[in-house]
Known about the structure:
The structure holds 2 protein chains of 2 kinds. Chain A is an alpha+beta fold. Chain A has one domain: Arc Repressor Mutant, subunit A. Chain A is built from 4 helices and 3 strands; from the N terminus they run H-E-H-H-E-E-H. A 3-stranded antiparallel sheet of chain A has the order 1-3-2. Chain B is 52% helix and 15% strand. Chain B contains 24 helices and 23 strands. In chain B, a hairpin with a 6-residue loop joins strand 19 (661-664) and strand 20 (671-679). The chains are: A alpha+beta, B alpha+beta. Chains A and B meet through helix 3, strand 3 and helix 4 of A and helix 2 and helix 4 of B.
Amino acid sequence: MKKPASAGTALLQGTLDVLILKVLALEPLHGLAISRRIAQVTGNTFQVKPGSLFPALHRMEQAGWLSSSWGESENTRRAKFYQLTKAGIRQLKQETDQWARISVAMASALEMF
Amino acid sequence: MWHRFRTVWRNLTKNQVFEDDLNQELHSYEAMLAEEKSRAGIDPSTARRAARLEMEGVEQIKENVRDVRVGVTIETFLSELRQSLRGLSRNKDLSILCSTMLALGIGATTVVFSIFYAALVQPLPFRDPDRLVELRESRLSRGIDVAAFSEANFWDVRTQNHSFKEVAAFHFDEANLTGDGPAEKVTDRSVTAGFFRTLGLSPVLGRDFSYTDDRNGFNNSVVILGNKFWRSRFGGDPHILGKVLRLNDRACIVVGVLPPGEPWIDDQIYQPFGYRADADRESWEFSVIGRLAPGVSVQGAQADLSRVAATLDKTYPGADKGIGFTLLPASSWLASDNARRALWVLVGAVSCLLLIACLNIANLLLARGTTRQREIAVRIALGAGRARLIRFVMMESLLLSIFGTLVGLVLAYGTLRGLQAMDLQGIPRLADASLNPWVLGCSVLVAILTGVLSGLAPALQTPAGGTAAAMRDGDHQTGSREQGRLRALLVTAEVAISFLLLVGAGLLIRSFAELVNVNRGFKTENRLMFSVSMPESYYQHGAGKQFLDRFFERLSNVPQVIAAGAVSSRPVEGADTGMGIAAVSAKTSRNEGNPPWAGWRIVSPGYFQAVGLPLLRGRAFDEHDKPVWAEPGQPEPPRRVVISQRLAKLLFANEDAVGKHVALWKGQGNMTAEVIGVVGDSRERGPASDPALTVYISYGRFAPVSEFVLHTRGNPLAVVPTVRAIVAKLDPNLPLADVRSFEEVIHRSLSPQRFNVILLTAFGGLAMLLATTGIYGVLAYTMNRRTAEIGLRVALGASRNNIFGMALSQGMRPALAGMLLGALGALWLSRYLETLLFGIEPFDVFTYLTVAALLLATALIACILPGRRATRIDPAVALRIE
Lengths: 113, 882
């Protein structure tokens, strides 16, 4: 299978999932809005390109974390909206906990030396 | 290679709806991106270009999305599969039990399917078999419908009809093949030149008969070999063409070899016969087939033949009075109505068995489902959709059915080989039955159906709303009351279907016992049968009679032989030669217009004694009696016949038949003969047929016979070497054929019935076993669930007997309901068995009562164990569980 060609993929993939889950926890969004919201909340650290966004969305939908439906965008354009499922909410909680643990661990590890 | 595989995979996974959806999604994304940019002040066309650029190639994105989706689907599937497998291996006993039941069910189904396919579905080995028909002469005004054709009538029909592309006739015969290896009796069919062309087949080797091949000319004697015979006798020799064979001392050249198959092309040797001006019009010896001309329907051909019949009736008022023709479609050539019906009964029976297996597995899975409620509840809590959950539960039953199918196919293969090795007669093309793609396809379909059916109830039982309740209850391994009722319902259905099957099997067993024990008329114990195939020269100048007399004389010196006789057509197995017969007397003219049809047999004087037919009146034949036919160049003999008892009653009512005269071949030859004796009736056409009306004619110089019956002391087969030695000494070129004890002849004739009995009994037994485990399972489950309640009852003073009675009534309720339903169903269905039964009615009280008693007993046994366990419940322990 072809891998999306963008820098730091390995790190990004795990990060991307949790970011998508996070921004969708507030409200259902369509693809472009998700991308913009992620850029916004990470202070433009992560610019998610459609080439990585859509595979991720579809993968998460298949995994049962997201569900999608067609709706109207803020500019009255037809767009596909994604929202979290119960399993998605659970997944978000799990990953958040994990990230918290990792960041605490990393922070303390880096401080020691 | 890899690329091609990927392409195929892509096409398989490409779903149009999904593709459209994805297209729209990406399109709307791009449009919004462009809008965003133009809002930021870039001019619209530049914005669009920039947006497109940012999409990095839409196709690439789509490809990635597809890959992700396929990957995830496979991953989910694999993980579900792993989970199911883990679940199954955790419950090893249950899984093995379920797979075994399915293996039995699917194995049985596959066996029946393969036999059914070979007999009824597999097309005949001919071109456009639906355009082929068999033609038969009839004299419906005289109640005769099954007659063959006379030779002359065949040639007339062939030239006068307007509805057949080709009509061909054949005549069955046997011949001695000598020289080139040991003398052998072979089946030898004479066919008209167009016979194979009518069937639409051509020889695999050499040529077909041409219309100029004429069997009567010596020099161009040609034969075509049957495929099986070519392989067995000549080892499939590819250079067989041109070889000279000696048939009945006549030299014949092999010109062709037929393709394999049946019917009608499975004889050993074929010879051509052509038109004869002096063809016989009175002896019905030929079978006739025809291929309908394009555009002609069977009805059209029937009408056309009625026209021909009317002409013949007028032209030949003697032989063809009242002539008519009937047509039989090719589909009936292999399987008789009864064989067809028996196969359908088997299909019904095996479906019932499979259904019981499904119900039973559903039942077991339901029981286990209870203990799994918690697991399922957790899954629901985690957000698994209902559809996904059902798929998860179904996957288990499907896996079970896959295991079951694999084992079942192995079982089926073995069973089929076993059945084929039993050399059963009368099941069409049994030897051809195999696990071919059609059969395998059916089995796989059935397996999937079974998986879905047996998984359906457990799947629907997945808690829809009460997740919390299920999680709470899960630990206690109890099920809902509703589930208990569902399981009782399944058991009721199982018992009902078992009842059906057992009644079917019981009726067939009873009927078979009647068949075996019916008075056959003959004595079959210690009787040896064999035939000596005489060459044509034996039928001239009294050579055959000379041989017979010397043979009988030698046999009379063998101490083990009590009596020896010979007949023209072997009882039960032989061809049935018949004639119209009437009494010649002033008083009895009532049969004049419609003379009864009686079989005729030429016999030696010792025949009645050898075959054990009692002489009731008058005398048997002696050495001075002669055949009814005059020998060429000799004066007419005094014509004398012996008749069977029923025929005597029919012709002469209560008068003494001895001394009276009868007209033989009534309506054809009108030969008058004197009745000199009356012998007992016999079931000439086999135990399943009514005692035959028979006329016995004495053998003689002009009419030698070649089917022998010996009454022996002790084992009849023990005298075979002696007999062989005597025959070899008299004429080394005479082969002995079809050597069997009379018992074996009867045994073989009952093959179809035995086949049905064996299979249906096996199915019935299996069904009962499954139903019993079902009853046991449900009761054990219910009692387990009620442990606390029973403990309370005991604590409140219920006696052990009370508890036991309660358990029993709970367990027996679904069983009794099932038996009642089964009995009603059996009453309704058993009429379809009627034509397969012999000597008993479809509603045979004895069978119904036996089946009811049997099921009752097994149900009780199934209830006793859980019932007794219930009585041993210790209230203190039971109440603590709660």
